[in-house]
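Can't attach files on this board, so I'm pasting raw text. These are the components:
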Amino acid sequence: MSNEVKHREPLFHIAKRSSIVWWKAWLVRLGAIVLAFFFSAVLTVLLTGENPLDVFSSLIKGAIGTNRRIWVLFQNTAMLLCVALAVTPAFKMKFWNIGAEGQALIGAMATAACMIKLTGVLPAPLLILAMFVASVVSGAVWAVIPALFKAKWNTNETLFTLMMNYIAIQIVSYFSGEWAVPKGSGKIGIINGDTMEGWLPVIGGKNYLLNILVVAAITVGMYIYLKYSKHGYEIAVVGESQNTARYIGINVKKVIIRTMIISGALCGVAGFLLVAGTDHTVTRDTIAGRGFTAIMVSWLAKFNPLYMVLTSLLIVFMERGAIQISTSCGLNNSFSEIITGIIIFFIIGCEFFLNYQIKFREKEGK
Amino acid sequence: MIAAFIHRAVMQGIPLLFGSTGEIITEKAGHLNLGIPGIMYVGGISGVIGAFFYEQSLNGAPLNGFLAVMIPLLSSLLGSLLMGLIYSFLTVTLRANQNVTGLALTTFGVGVGNFFGGSLIKLVDTDMPSITLTKTSAFFSKTLPFADELGWFGEVFLSYSFLAYAAIIIALISSYVLKKTRVGLNIRAIGENPATADAAGINVERYKYLSTCIGSMIAGLGGLYYVMDYATGIWSNDGFGDRGWLAIALVIFAVWRPNISIIGSILFGALFIVHNYIENLSMSDQELFKMAPYVVTLIVLIAISMRDKKENQPPASLGISYFREDR
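---
Top answer:
Structure tokens for the assembled complex are below.
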């Protein structure tokens, strides 16, 4: 054996940081984003053979090149942000709800169902109210089912919510067939395209303005809820340690169920906004993966609703820009997913340097 | 008719079996890799890229059987290994959140698959209209001899390509290794309680890397099988669909045992296609049938949590990163 070999301290070891100055933390994050940009730029140039500056300019053009594109950017950001806000309370509680996709989709389905079945039955304002209520309730129901099982039997929520996504998707596919217009096309198509009944009103002549305002209000509300309300405090404690929560008299099961109802209801709102305010139809791709991207947005922002505005804007900006790059170079649209993936990898990776520090071995003989 | 049904069910099930075997190995070491769907895409497209360049380099000359199989196989393994390395570097070395990393990996992997699937032809400037690797596929879908001569027996048991048998053998070996060997014991110990395993002198990081990367490579083969055999060498974007998620569902269905996964994958495959065999189903009713695998999985998930039997639970530290100094 090698007992006689003098024990050498390893070159470096890793220790947990107690805290990090806020500006240093942001510097590290900024560095990661810059690195990610650089890496994506190299990749783009390698794949397309274009001048990097051209690539960069088409990125910017794609995201904010025209008035319309700016609105689309804000609209997409708002929608992503809405789902991200929805998953945040659950995540803060360390309840790994990856079912936002399904919860929002079932909300979207409920909205569309009301538009199809209740048009003509209810007057327009009541119709919108019914759509809203239906979406909120169905989103909440979709979220509370896994929560009930988690609270009662400790059923793994990640896997449960994941399965619920696909059940929701199949339900939408089912109704897309049943209510297809024209029959047999497998698509619901634009609902009430002629009367615009059940469509959210256009305010200030801007199509998506109402959506954006609603999400802005939710952002502020969620910030206050998490930071200043008793509920928010309970969520934080349960997230840190369920035992501590029990010890100080918090009913953990109740908090889990209540928080998931809120989370699901907000997902339902996202579905409502997407159907009533944007698409005016529902397909199995209405949520378009936002339920999953939202988890990353929320996590990257450290569950802070205000930072989430920035992270969702960053992701959507890159997405829109990359779509433009791929169009102008005749490449496939999925290029944007690659770029999004790379950026998230870098930001995830940099968290390590915020939470831990690397201590190098001190010089020998000291 | 029944033989044909079983044959189709197995063909559907094999990619799921690869995916779930890979995921089980990863999860047993405590890592919930939600990147499996992306890894399977990358496994598929890497194989396609390898085969594509090999076919291109020959300019229409006949393919060498050995190379035609080995090049896609190795490039597929390499692609999914790289994905596994990204995941394990982020979650093991940098201790990043596993759910977030996995989801990002899926976004990335599906993007890579669809991007190269859609752009490969443009990037290399050929006159091919789309990626059709029928020649390579012919080698991948070779069945056993006598499959046609033995009637239903041949169709049910012998009519698959070598990758399908490989999937079953790999699942059996994984099952054996996890259950009966020292390596398997160590992996399971880490998944249950990494701190205890560490104290017992097991190199936790090395095992986590190992199980994640091997798991990814096995899962990637599912993508390769899908595109080369099932889809006869024709890549279509998003063609692989949600099979990756179904593979993760299968892990639960098989209560973390690769050998049960074999039966489970065939059952899932059958549930996936059963709507084609029921007469007078409307298009929308077919969609309801496609829900079945997910519903069945949910029922199993609920049942195992209610029965609360120790040996059927997910690994205790599943999804939690391990840091030695946290103890």
